[in-house]
Structures are given as structure tokens and as C-alpha cells.
Amino acid sequence: MPNTPVIPDFEDFKRDIIEIFEHVTPHTEGTPDKDLYPEGLENPPFAVSICTVDGQWLQLGDHHLSFSIQSISKPINYGIAIEECGKETVHRHIGKEPGAENFEKGMILNRHNLPHNPMINSGSIMSASLIKPNLDNDKKLEHVMGIWKKLCGEKPLGFDQDAFKKEMEASHSNFALAHIMMKHNAFPENTDLNKAVEFHYMCCSIGINIDDLAHAAATLANYGTSPSNGIKVFEHDTVKDMLSLMLSCGMYDHSGEFAFNVGIPSKSGVDGGMIAVIPELMGISIYSPPLDEHGNTVRGVKFCEKLVEKFNFHKHDALFRNVHGKKDPRIDHRKR
Questions:
Q1: What is d(CA 292, CA 295) in angstroms, rounded to the nearest whole number?
Q2: What pLDDT does residue 104 have?
Q3: pLDDT tens digits for 28-70?
Q4: Is residue 1 part of a domain?
Q5: Which domain holds residue 165?
Q6: Residue 44 and residue 290 in contact, taking contact as beta carbons nearer than 8 Å
Q7: I need a labelling partner for 258 at 20 to 30 A (CA). Which of 3, 152, 189, 293 fits?
Q8: How many domains does the chain have?
């Protein structure tokens, strides 16, 4: 007998997702990142892609477009650093608590003079310094893009040279962060500060299609194993740590409220991309460039909020007792 799909009535699930997509589509408020889109966007694109851990697909909206992953690179680089250096070493240089880089309030590093977590720029620069430190940045990028290729089911990725150039031209604050960390001896010994900041931006400038990004999210939902070919990309414990910090820190200054309201490990990027990971079920990718005041895609946040209104996907929703009136697509209601 064939295995039952993880979402047995996928057509019913698809109808619900299309309804949520259509509800969110009119929300064009927000402002695209001024460095990446200096002239703004008249008709901002919107796309959602869902890939389950057993390879079921749903693709909606503007799927022909690619974009730079930006801060979605941060949990991946954190996972790479853990597997190459070990968790203990990584967290000698990066904290695990929610927090932001607030220059005005002087709250740039944590009380140990480390980046608060790997999901913000200072933590991302630190992760960048830990990955293959003896290689030059071109070789380091080749290495990281090779891991992204595995996450995406062996799909090749591009590099957004234009995004990289624009970000390097606006890199003053991140160089300031790096100098502050260097002043406090937060970096590993012999770290090249310029090399670390440049590599952070190189990883942010990896170009991706939304469907490939959904596959990468599904690989995380499958605890590191690709749903399309069974290749193991990350160890289970590594993904557990990645998802834990995505849940608590993945949505900038909105992370606490998002964890409270949505309860799904997620990470956004300023080019309008976003991933949401529902462990052992699916990965979701969203693309819409207009951002809210926190730097998160407006439609992405609204889509996830509507998603957990309909389905029991919040981290702390009851799975086996329907006390909240939400749907569980893992159950085949046709057989009841």
C-alpha cells in the first residue's frame, strides 16, 4: 500500500490557501527597501509557494521572478557555522536571545559584548567570519551556494550583483557594527573584519526563485533532509537550533509579537522574501517587496496571520483536540 500523503486532501487545503492568498493580495501598503528599490514599485509582485515534506506543491502568484535572499541567509549561515565549528564554539561568539542593534539607545551588543543572536546583522557578520575562515570570499561563497543548492533540491542559484553593489554602497552601519565587535574582542582570533562584512553581503545577494526557496524551507521542515531526493543537508540538532532562533528572533523587532500571534519559525529579508517552517509538515515561501516599519514583508506577515487563523499551525495549538475550531490538514476528513 502506498504511503498516505502528509496532507491527504490536498485539493481542500489548496482551496483554503487560495482564499487566504486572495484575501491578502489587496494589501499593497508598505514601502520597498530604499537601497534595493530607490524608485519604489508601482505594482508590487506577490507570490506564495508551499512544499510539503513529502513533495506536494502549491504555487501562487508571480513565480517567474527571482530576488535576493537577504536576511534569509542568516539562519542558513548559522546552521553552516554550527556544523563546521560546533554549537559551543559558535555561541562563544553569538548570543541566543532576542535583541536588536539600536545605535540610539546604545543597545548594540548583549551584556557579554556579543551579537544578541544570529538573525540580526551583527550576528550574521559573526557567522560569516566563522564559515571556512581560511578560504577567500569567492571560495566561501561557492561553498555556501553549494549548500543552498542542496537545500533547493539540486537547483542552481544565481548571484544578484546589482543587489550586492547597492548594499556595499550603503554598508556604513554594518562596518560600524563590525568595528564595535572588534573593539570588544567578539570575533575569533585573526578575523579579517572587511572580509567578514563583505561575505555577509555576498550571502545576502544570492538570487533565488520562490519555488526553490519553498523547497529549502521544506528541507528545514523535514529536519535537514531534502523532500525531493532524500539528501541530508543538515543534522537534526542543527535544524532544531535554527528553528528555535527563527521562532524567537527571525522577524526583527516584530519577533516577539509574531511568535505570539503566529507561532511559526520564520525569517524575512528586506528584498521582500520570507520563509515559514512548519516542522514535519511543510515549508512556505512568500515574496512581496513592500515592507512594514520593522522591515518585514507586509503581505508575508498578513498571510501567516490568516494561515494560523484557519489552521492549527501555531507552535502551541493543540494537535489532537479540536478545542480551537481550526482545521488540521494532516487529517483526512473525507474518511470521517
A1: 5
A2: 44
A3: 999 999 989 988 888 999 999 999 999 999 999 998 889 999 9
A4: no
A5: 10-335
A6: yes
A7: 152
A8: 1
